[in-house]
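Workshop exercise sheet. Pairs work together: one partner reads the sequence aloud, the other fills in the structure field after running the prediction. Swap roles for the next sheet.
Pair: D.N. / O.F.
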Amino acid sequence: NPGGLSGYRGYFWRRAPGYHDVVVYEGNATSGRNITHNLGVVPEMMWVKSTSHARQWAIYHKDLGNAAYLNLDDNGFPNTGESGYWNSTTPTSSVFTLGNSYDVNNSSYTYVNFLFATLAGVSKVGSVSHSGSSTDVDCGFSSGASLVMLKRTDSTGDWYWWDSTSGIVAGNDPYFLLNTQDAQVTNTDLIDPLSSGFTITDDFTDGDYIFYAIAT
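Structure field:
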C-alpha cells in the first residue's frame, strides 16, 4: 500500500539479455534512424511512448510486420503500410529503426522504448488463431504462465491482460483491459491454465490474436 494507495497493481520488468530492455532517446524526425539497444536478440515486440508530449503508445509486433503498428490506447485494427513508425525495417539484435512519426521520432520529443523477446522457458511473444473450441497455446513453459496479454488483430479488439496474482485458474480469471480505465473484470472464464503456456477457452471471441506471456 505505498503512499496510502489501495486498489492498484504495479508490473515490473528486469532488463536482461534475451528477455527485456529499455531505451530512452530524443527524437530527430529523421527517417531511417537506427538506435542501439542491449536486448542481445532481435526484438519481437516494442512499446514506444513519448515522455515529453501527449502521444499514443506505438506498438510493434513481429507477426504484424515492419510496416504495421498498433496503439495500446485503443482497440483498433493494426495500421498497415506505415513507414513512418519503423521505416519498414525489421529490428536487429543491435538496433531498432525509426521513421519520422510524431509517435516515435519527432524532433526534440523524448521517448522510451520497451523491448521484448522470447526467451526459452521464460517468455514468449507470438500469435495464435482461435476458433470454436478451446485453443492450447504452447509457449514452451513447464509450469504454466503467470502473465498473459492478448490482442485481436483481424478485427477490433481490446488488450486483455491476465496475471497469476488475480488468478489464472480453471474457473473465472479476472482481467484488465489495457486500453480502458475500467475496473478489473472478475466474472469470466476466458483462459485456463496449461503447463506449457495457457488455454484460450471456447467463451473467448474467435479470431486472430497476438500475445505475450511470461512463465510462472
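Discussion prompt: The first strand starts at residue 20 and ends at 26. What would you look at next?
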